[in-house]
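(Protein data)
===
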Amino acid sequence: MKKELTIDMLAAVKRPDRYTGGEFGSIVKKDAEVRMALAFPDVYEVGMSYLGFKILYHLVNKMDGIAAERVYAPWVDMEKLMRERGVVLTTLETKQALSELDAVGFTLQYELSYTNILNMLDLGGVTVRKAERRDDEPLVLVGGPCVFNPEPLADFIDLALIGDGEEALPEVLEALRQWKEEGRPGGRKGFLHRAQQIPGIYVPEFYEPEYNGDGTLARMKVTDPAAPACVEKRVVADLNKVDFPTAP
């Protein structure tokens, strides 16, 4: 597995600064027990302007033993070189391949970015379809405004965070840390059972769509007795109590 973008690769693309990292204000936690990527399915300059990621980056990195790193979609010039040379997509902070992380979390800001999500998983060495993922591969989760209709990505994601993530994402990561500490009981599905108990978490594996004769959705059948019939969105009741970042 090649993870290093060489000097000649950086020199060959239009915006090499998209891929180097090391910006003022970035956070590196080398000894974290749980490491996740906050993944924006668009190029660096689009994702870096998104305040939501700055908030989650700040909140997660305040947690003991848990690290949030960043990854963005490469532009077509860099992707071409990466595929030609077998270089995987890595985080900016510690240059970890996506396949080496515990979780990869994508924000769904607009539907046209969905194919970028699949492309980034593939570039990062993560099996694209969730049914084919091994237990040792990272969990793939999504959040953001488009997550209120997660079904187009149901075959590719492990869980969806419906609603506000300021409280829910740290809860998911703390549950993941505890599950790892206990020796990963029940494997991947064991963690999904834990995650579904967190308000606002939708696990597609525990639901099955049923359709009308004309192809429209009739209902979502719950296939796991512990799964809620309806997932209610998370709402931060008092934004004044959220610790927003003050540093760039």
User: Anything to note?
Assistant: The two ends are 33 Å apart (CA to CA). The chain is about 25% helix and 15% strand. The first helix runs from residue 7 to 12. The mean pLDDT is 94.
